[in-house]
Every structure is written in structure tokens, then in C-alpha cells.
Amino acid sequence: MYTLITCANSAEAYVLKTALHGEPVLMGDFEALPEFLVNTGKMIRLPNPLDTSYVHQVLTLCLNRNINKICPLRVQEQVLLLNSAQLFAEYGISIVVNDQIQ
């Protein structure tokens, strides 16, 4: 099982990844990512939170990629995912948000 950290190009994402002490982590972003990192599987493209089917796209991604925890770092992602936390919980996926960001 993997933890998905969003906002992959940010320093905050790398600090969080380090803090997870070796947990299997996938880093993703809906903004531009270096193509070579996407091609090697080190980063994944995420749906845009402005898309009306964002929550369902993220849920599908989690199910396809064996992700059981999401750490959304952008406020817009946090709001959408926390509002759908019950749906994700039904599939064994937790949404983890830093208290300082809420």
C-alpha cells in the first residue's frame, strides 16, 4: 500500500516524504511535472481539482495504484477530499491533512 503526497514539486512534499520514514510513497501533482520522472514512475499526474469529477478520478487512481492514504497539501485538494472522506473510507483510503493547513 502507498501513501500519495500531492503538490509533488514543493519542498513541503519532500519534507513530508522524509518524515514518513521509508513508507512506500507516490508523489503526484496536477501541475507540470518533469516528464522523465513521470515516465520512470517516480511521480504521477493527478487530476485537476477544478474538474467536476475530481473526487472520482482520485478515488479511481487510488484503487488502481494501491493507495491507502492521501496527504493533500493544497487547500483546494484538502477541501474536496475531506468533504468526500466517507467515500474514501469505504474503500479503506484515509485522507490525512496537517492540522496547521486546515
Which features would summarize this protein structure in a list?
102 residues, alpha/beta, Rossmann fold, 5 helices, 39% helix, globular
What profile does the largest beta sheet have?
Answer: 5 strands, parallel
- Rg over CA atoms, rounded to whole Å, is 13 Å
- The appropriate CATH architecture is 3-Layer(aba) Sandwich
Output mean pLDDT.
Answer: 92
What can you see in these coordinates?
The chain has helices spanning 11-19, 35-39, 54-65, 75-83, 85-89, and strands at residues 2-5, 25-29, 43-45, 67-71, 94-95. It is an alpha/beta fold. The protein has one domain (2-95): Rossmann fold (3-Layer(aba) Sandwich). The relative contact order is 0.19. The model has no long low-confidence stretch (mean pLDDT 92).
Question: How are the SSEs placed, and which strands pair?
Answer:
Layout lengths: L1 E4 L5 H9 L5 E5 L5 H5 L3 E3 L8 H12 L1 E5 L3 H9 L1 H5 L4 E2 L7
Parallel strand pairs: 1-2, 1-4, 2-3, 4-5
In brief:
The protein has 102 residues and is of the alpha/beta class. The chain is built from 5 helices and 5 strands. It has helices spanning 11-19, 35-39, 54-65, 75-83, 85-89; strands at residues 2-5, 25-29, 43-45, 67-71, 94-95.
